[in-house]
Amino acid sequence: MIFKGNSLCAKLLDNGIAELVFDAQGSVNKFDQQTVSELDQATQALAANADVKGVVVRSAKSTFIVGADITEFTSLFALADEEVLAWVAKTSQVFDRFEDLPFPTIAAVNGFALGGGCEMTLACDLRVADTSASIGLPEVKLGLMPGFGGTVRLPRLIGTDNALEWMTTGKDRKAAQALAEGAVDSVVAPDKLVDAAISMLTDAINGDFDWQARRAQKKAPLSLNKNEATMSFSTAKAMVAAQAGKHYPSPHMMVDTVAKAAGMDREGALKLENQGFVTLAKSDAAKAQVGIFLADQLVKSKGKKQAKAASKEIKQTAVLGAGIMGGGIAYQSAVKGTPVIMKDIAQPALDLGLAEAAKILGKGMQRGKVDAAKMAATLNNIVPTLEYSAMKDADLVIEAVVENPNVKGIVLKETEEVVADDTIICSNTSTISINQLAKSLQKPERFCGMHFFNPVHKMPLVEIIRGEKTSDATISAVVAATLKMGKTPIVVNDCPGFLVNRVLFPYFAGFSKLVLDGADFVAVDKVMEKVFGWPMGPAYLLDVVGMDTADHASGVMAEGIPQRMQKIDNDPVTCLYRAERLGQKNGKGFYNFGVDKRGRPSKTPASEAYELFKPHCAQQQDFDKDEIIARLMVPMANEAIRCLEEGIVGSAAEADMALLYGLGFPPFRGGIFRYIETMGLSNFVALADKYAHLGPIYELSDGVREMAASGKSYFSHSA
C-alpha cells in the first residue's frame, strides 16, 4: 500500500502501474476538505515511489466522483474574501501537483464525474469512460464556476466553444458525446473499464502514446489566433446574454475568465479562475443557488424518510373529476406506471380529461421525448368511467372536482361509501380547509389535501395538507405516492390557502392596492419580470390563473384570515370578474389574448381594463421600481414568516422550495426566506414599517422583530 486514507487509497499493481482508488465512507465520492487533503498526500506518496511508472484513477463505487461537498460551502463562503481565495487556490494547486506527476496518468470513469470529479479527470493525461458515464461541470447551477482548474484545462482539451457550452449551461455529457467532443479518449463496456485503462496507460508508459505532449497542451496558452478568439468569445458572450440574462453572473464570469486567460499558461489562467470563483462565491446569486441546492436536499431527504415509513403501497389510483386538472393528475399517475381510474359524471368531461393526457403525450412525441409505445402504455393506464363502483379497488382516490366546499363534501362522502376501509382519500383543493372537508367523512384519519399545481405535468410541487385528524400513516403513503408520480411533496398543516396560496394572495393584494393608487399594471409587470425576476408579473399571472378563480379564492382567504385579507373595495380583479373578463380562459383580462400575424400567441394591454379601473383609481403615475417591488414582496414575505411561526410549514428551506416549485420564485433570489435574509432582517423590518400605513398585510409579527433584534437566522435549523 502506497497510501491509505479514509476516502481514497493508492497501491501498486503489476508492471509499475499504481491505482488511486476513491472510496469514501458515504454513499458517493465527493471532494470535501478531508478528501482533497488525502489526494495531496497520495500524490506526494506516488511521486516519491520509484517503482511507480503510471497511475490509474478509479472509483470503488457505482459512480466516479459527484463533485465538491456543497454542504461545506455555506461556512466556507462566509469567510473573508482573502480566506476564500486562499482555500480555492490551495485546493486547485492539489490538482496541479497531481497533473505534474512524473509519469502518465489515466482516469477510468464510471457513472457521474461532475464538477470536481470532472476536474479530477481533466488533471489526468488520458481518460477512458464506460457506457454508464456522465461527465460535466454543473457549477453554473450553483451560481459558481469551476474552481479546481476546469476553466483552464477543458478549453485546452476540447476547444473553447465546446468548453464554454459545457460550462455556461452546466449540462453533463453521456460517454459517447464526451468522446465525440474529445473529453475522453475511449468508451468501453463497464466490465472492460479497468482493463482498458491499464492497457492505454501501458501504451503511454511504453512510449506508444505521447502523453507529455497532451499534458503540455493543457498547461500552455490557448491555440487561438486573434480573429478566432474574437469570434469565439463574442459569440459566447451573446449566447450567455440571451440565455442567462443579467441576474445570473456566473456564466458571464466564465466567458470573461476564459477570454482573459486565453494567452496565459496554466499558472496565470488558474489565478484568474481563483479570483473569479471568489467573486462568485461572495455573490447573492451563489448564496441563493447554493441555498436552493441545500434546501432541495433537505426536502428530498425528508420526503424519502416519510415515504420509507409508508405501510400502504399505492398500486391503483383513482381521480374524481376529469377536467384539465383531473386529466393532468391522471396523466401524471399513468405516465409513471400507476394505473388510474378517471371518474366523472359526464362523458364530455371524460373526453376532455383523456384529450388533456393525449395532448401532453403528443407534445412529448413532437419533441422526441415520447415514443409510440410510451404513449400507448400511458393512455392504456387511464380507464375512464361514469360509475363510482369502478373505483372500489383503488388504493388512493384524488378528488379534483369544482372548488366548492359543498360539492366536494358530497363527492367525498359518496366516495367513502364505495371504496375499501383502508383506501386513502385526498382532495385537490387550492384553498378550502381540509378540516372542514374532513367533516364529510366517517374516517377523517385517512383523508388529507393533495394540492397539485397547473399545468400538472410541468409544475414539480404537490402540497400535502395534513388535517387535524389525518394519521401519520396517511401522510407517509401520500408522500410515497407523490414521489412515485415524479413530484416533490412538501407537507404543510391546514389553514386557509395552505402555504403557497396563503402567501400569494397578499402579493396580489399589494398589487391591487398599487393599481388603485395609480400604477400602470403593465409597468408593474415589467418591473416584477425584468427586475425582480418572476416568470410572470402579477397582472399576467392573474390572467393565467383566471379572474373567477382568483376572486373566489380571495373570498375564501378573506373569510379565513379576516384581520389581514379582507376584500379590497373596488379590487381590479373583482372589476374584471364582474365584467366577465376572466383572463386567458376567455381571451380577455388585464390583457387581450390572441394570435399575431405569424399565428403565434399574443397578449396586448387591454384598453377596456384601463377604462374599467379608471373610476376607482388615483390618477396614473410612475412608481419607482424599488417601491413596486417592496409593495408586492413585503406582504408575501410577511405572510411566509407567519406561516413558519404558526407551524404551517416545517422550515424556511421547505417554504423556499414550495415557492420555487409552486410559483416559479426567481431561483437567483433563492426563495422567499433567502430573499429576506439577503436583504437583512433589520432592513426588511425597516422596509415593512415604511409601508405599514398601507394596511395589515404590511404589519409585522413580534417574532420577526425579535429575530432581527437578536441577529438570528431563519436557516439556523435548516438548509
Overall structural class, as computed from helix and strand content, comes to alpha/beta
Mean pLDDT across every amino acid position: 95
Using DSSP, what is the number of strands? 20
Largest sheet at a glance? 8 strands, mixed
Helix content: 40-55%
Second rung of CATH, namely the architecture of the largest domain: Alpha-Beta Complex
> How much strand content do the residues show?
5-15%
Report on this model:
Helices cover 51% and strands 12% of the residues. The protein is an alpha/beta fold. The chain has three domains: 3-282, 2-enoyl-CoA Hydratase, Chain A, domain 1; 313-494, Rossmann fold; 501-710, Orthogonal Bundle (N-(1-d-carboxylethyl)-l-norvaline Dehydrogenase, domain 2), CATH 1.10.1040. An eight-stranded mixed sheet has the order 13-12-11-14-15-16-17-18, sandwiched between helices. The longest helix has 25 residues, at 284-308. The radius of gyration is 29 Å and the shape is globular. The relative contact order is 0.06. In the central section; belongs to the 3-hydroxyacyl-CoA dehydrogenase family. Pathway: Lipid metabolism; fatty acid beta-oxidation.
